[in-house]
């Protein structure tokens, strides 16, 4: 296997690790905090918001936005590191 | 100036703007027509994507749905935004790297199969046409309501405007028009929300107002709303109700996967210059969508609060606790005339009682203690909440005109995006890709424009004569996208060994099981009376609502594709190399 193929594989593995972390956060804020454990979480208040309700109707959306930008930023770093970035 | 003239002026001015932009941004080449010459800045593209994505359903219906569902309405909020995470992480950058014009083109090339491409075209056309019918109807209703013209007149005006700017400008014209439409839409949505948030809580930011205390009181708005709803026999606003936890989970997942698989949204990411722009562009799209989507919960909660407190101004069951029918505000009277709001004085006491008479315990208690004989708001269409909101809050006429223009902008921008996806599927995938590979660029452009014209006429006709299934159709469109296109696209990128046999079998199984499940409960091709099982939680298989079935259809697609792939031979080497190359932004070394 050539040097380039090895580096390509390492790039893809690093990429998949980043994807896994991002998707775990995506699942956590929406399906776990916003749905599955939302009712017990409602006992905690965030200002006038019960916390579970806040995640379902506000917090998950804010997290999604941040998540995409963090992913884009980390990917740019990764692209440069493995020298596959665009001009 | 009366309200009608004002509305006409505002809506007319926005139409002139859209057509002006189309003339300025005419498309000359196929690349400009399909993907705007790949020259759109990621922030501009994000804004256009937001307008493309947010349809009449987001603008008009969603806050009303949330108002009556409460907490579980979060399924729509999370589902329709979380899909962008999937799109940004799992599809957009790779499809941009692949560098073609349409979604079926990717499927056809990746799975080296014209059959796969044709199945993708069929799925795309079915879901886009069903979706566009709802938009055309939205345009017609918004027009006829505000301008007091017949539905047909409103619809034809809307069709003409879409025809001019979509056919003339292609993707380039559509993109710039959608940027203008986004600005009108978001302004129209937030202005009434800000006014109402100030009135109720003193906080001008709706997202913060919803978590604030009521004006002149120490009670939080949401706590007061919980109490009010419970007092009337409904479930507490911030707790599970209206749908089960299982269905909330499945609906959220189906809407997310469906969003990520909608072809007219995916092609937006073909219009940016580079792979890295595709990633960032999805983020910007979600910023612009999030602006409306985080405002919607405040609009919904405040609308139901205002409504209940209008009907029940004092303590329930007391003399001054009820609104006398004679004293009802003018906006109620106006909406009664449309038939979307109706009262019936069941116990003939001259005042209105609004409560949950489907709750047997509460209904029995109310009858015994208060002498109530059923909820007296007998019709309350959820779709009127956003449109009536400025009137309920007593806002000036220009705000009402603006909301009308915003609703029309939402419907037109989505219709245009869908029409372009249909036109490109027909001219590029079917004509150039399959039947007439040697067609010249000029004739392909002409074919695209003709296809778009035919699609507009067809959608307009069905918008006038709807098969009577507006809400289900949206669910079907999402279910189909979730069960057919998304899994296939994702496997095409992340599973190098996925072959054409697996992809075709997966798409067919996902598509057919979802259709079968929906038709079982909604009737064959939505004809009423042909449903084989009752469309109720008791009748649903394992309690799964047909609107959330797309998530399960997607799982069937994945599993079938995997099994078939294992049983058949692996894809040729050049296809595996192709998959390797879409995974990295720059391959030439």
Describe the protein's architecture and organization:
The complex is a heterodimer of chains A (about 90) and B (about 600). Chain A has one domain. Helix content of chain A is about 80%, strand content about 5%. Chain A has three helices and two strands, in the order ααββα. Chain A is elongated and about 55 Å long. The model of chain A has no long low-confidence stretch (mean pLDDT about 90). Chain B is an all-alpha fold and about 600 residues long. Chain B folds into two domains: about 475 residues, Sodium/glucose cotransporter, CATH 1.20.1730.10; about 90 residues, no CATH class. Chain B is globular, with a radius of gyration of 25 Å. Classes of the chains: A mainly alpha (about 90), B mainly alpha (about 600). The interface between A and B is large, with 44 and 53 residues.
Topology of this protein?
The complex is a heterodimer of chains A (87) and B (589).
Chain A: H1 3-36, H2 38-41, E1 45-46, E2 49-50, H3 51-81
Antiparallel strand pairs in A: 1-2
Helix pairs in contact in A: 1-3
Chain B: H1 3-24, H2 30-35, H3 42-53, H4 56-69, H5 74-98, H6 103-110, H7 114-147, H8 151-201, H9 206-209, H10 221-231, H11 245-261, H12 263-266, H13 275-293, H14 296-311, E1 323-324, H15 330-338, E2 341-343, E3 351-352, H16 360-370, E4 377-380, H17 384-392, H18 397-435, H19 441-464, H20 470-494, H21 500-522, H22 550-567, H23 573-582
Helix pairs in contact in B: 1-8, 1-18, 3-8, 3-13, 4-14, 4-17, 4-18, 5-11, 5-13, 6-7, 7-8, 7-18, 7-19, 7-20, 7-21, 8-18, 8-19, 11-20, 11-22, 14-17, 18-19, 20-21, 20-22, 21-22
Care to give the gist of this entry?
Chain A is mainly alpha-helical and 87 residues long. Chain A has one domain (3-81).
* Count of helix runs of chain B: 23
Please trace the helix and strand order of chain A, writing H or E for each element.
HHEEH
Mean pLDDT of chain B: 84
Secondary-structure element sequence of chain B?
HHHHHHHHHHHHHHEHEEHEHHHHHHH
CATH architecture of the largest domain in chain B: Up-down Bundle
Instruction: Give the class of chain B from helix and strand content and strand pairing.
Output: mainly alpha
Tell me about the largest β-sheet of chain B: 2 strands, antiparallel
Estimated share of beta-strand residues of chain B: under 5%
User: Helix segment count of chain A?
Assistant: 3
Unreliable runs of chain B: none
Domain count of chain B, please report it: 2
Largest interface, counted by CB within 8 Å of the partner chain's CB? A-B, 44 and 53 residues
**Main sheet strand line-up of chain B:** 1-3
Please indicate the count of domains of chain A.
1
The CATH homologous superfamily of the largest domain in chain B is termed Sodium/glucose cotransporter
Poorly predicted runs of chain A: none
InterPro entries (chain A): Na_symporter_ssu (IPR019886)
Pfam families (chain A): DUF4212 (PF13937)
Organism (chain A): Thioalkalivibrio versutus
Domain Sodium symporter small subunit (chain A): 8-85
């Amino acid at each position: 296997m050539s040097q380039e193929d090895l580096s390509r594989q390492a790039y893809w593995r690093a990429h998949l690790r980043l994807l896994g972390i991002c998707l775990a956060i995506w699942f956590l804020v929406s399906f776990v905090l916003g749905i599955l454990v939302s009712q017990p979480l409602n006992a905690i208040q965030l200002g006038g918001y019960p916390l579970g309700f806040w995640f379902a109707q506000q917090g998950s959306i804010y997290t999604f936005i941040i998540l995409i930008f963090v992913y884009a930023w980390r990917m740019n770093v990764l692209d440069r590191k493995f020298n596959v970035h665009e001009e | 100036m009366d309200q009608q003239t004002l509305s006409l002026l505002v809506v007319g001015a926005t139409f002139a703007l859209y057509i002006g932009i189309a003339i300025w941004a005419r498309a000359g080449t196929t690349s400009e027509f399909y993907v705007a010459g790949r020259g759109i800045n990621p922030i501009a593209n994000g804004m256009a994507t937001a307008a493309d994505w947010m349809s009449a359903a987001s603008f008009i219906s969603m806050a009303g749905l949330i108002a009556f569902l409460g907490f579980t309405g979060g399924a729509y909020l999370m589902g329709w935004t979380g899909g962008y995470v999937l799109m940004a992480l799992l599809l957009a950058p790779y499809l941009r790297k692949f560098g073609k014009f349409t979604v079926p083109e990717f499927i056809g090339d990746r799975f080296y199969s014209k059959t796969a491409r044709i199945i993708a075209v069929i799925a795309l056309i079915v879901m886009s046409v069903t979706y566009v019918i709802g938009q055309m109807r939205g345009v017609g209703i918004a027009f006829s309501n505000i301008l007091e013209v017949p539905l047909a007149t409103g619809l034809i005006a809307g069709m003409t405007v879409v025809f001019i700017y979509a056919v003339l400008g292609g993707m380039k014209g559509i993109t710039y028009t959608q940027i203008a439409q986004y600005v009108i839409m978001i302004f129209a949505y937030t202005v009434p929300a800000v006014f109402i948030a100030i009135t109720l809580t003193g906080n001008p930011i709706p997202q913060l107002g919803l978590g604030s205390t009521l004006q002149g009181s120490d009670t939080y708005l949401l706590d007061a709303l919980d109490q009010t709803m419970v007092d009337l026999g409904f479930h507490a606003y911030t707790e599970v109700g209206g749908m089960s936890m299982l269905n909330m989970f499945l609906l959220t997942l189906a809407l997310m996967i469906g969003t990520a698989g909608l072809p007219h949204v995916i092609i937006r990411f073909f219009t940016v210059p580079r792979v890295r722009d595709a990633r960032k562009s999805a983020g910007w799209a979600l910023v612009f969508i999030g602006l409306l989507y985080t405002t919607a919960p405040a609009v919904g909660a405040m609308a139901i609060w205002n409504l209940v407190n209008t009907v029940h101004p004092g303590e329930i069951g007391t003399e001054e606790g009820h609104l006398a029918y004679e004293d009802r505000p003018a906006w109620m009277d106006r909406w009664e005339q449309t038939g979307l709001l109706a009262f019936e004085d069941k116990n003939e006491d001259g005042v209105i009682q609004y409560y949950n008479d489907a709750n047997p315990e509460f209904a029995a208690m109310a009858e015994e203690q208060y002498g109530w004989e059923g909820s007296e708001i007998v019709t309350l269409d959820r779709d009127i909440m956003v449109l009536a909101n400025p009137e309920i809050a007593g806002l000036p006429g220009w705000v009402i005109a603006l909301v009308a223009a915003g609703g029309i902008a939402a419907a037109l921008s989505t219709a245009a995006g869908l029409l372009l996806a249909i036109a490109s599927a027909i001219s590029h995938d079917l004509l150039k890709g399959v039947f007439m590979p040697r067609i010249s660029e000029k004739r392909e452009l002409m074919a695209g424009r003709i296809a778009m014209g035919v699609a507009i006429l067809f959608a307009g006709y069905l918008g006038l004569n709807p098969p009577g299934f507006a809400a289900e159709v949206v669910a079907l469109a999402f279910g189909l996208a979730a069960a057919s296109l998304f899994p296939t696209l994702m496997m095409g990128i992340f599973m190098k060994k996925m072959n054409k046999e697996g992809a075709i079998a997966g798409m067919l199984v996902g598509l057919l099981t979802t259709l079968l499940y929906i038709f079982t409960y909604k009737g064959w091709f939505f004809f009423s009376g042909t449903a084989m099982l009752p469309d109720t939680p008791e009748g649903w298989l394992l309690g799964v609502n047909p609107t959330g079935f797309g998530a399960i259809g997607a799982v069937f697609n994945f599993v079938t594709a995997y099994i078939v792939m294992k049983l058949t031979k692996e894809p040729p080497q050049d296809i595996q190399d192709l998959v390797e190359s879409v995974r990295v932004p720059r391959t030439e070394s």
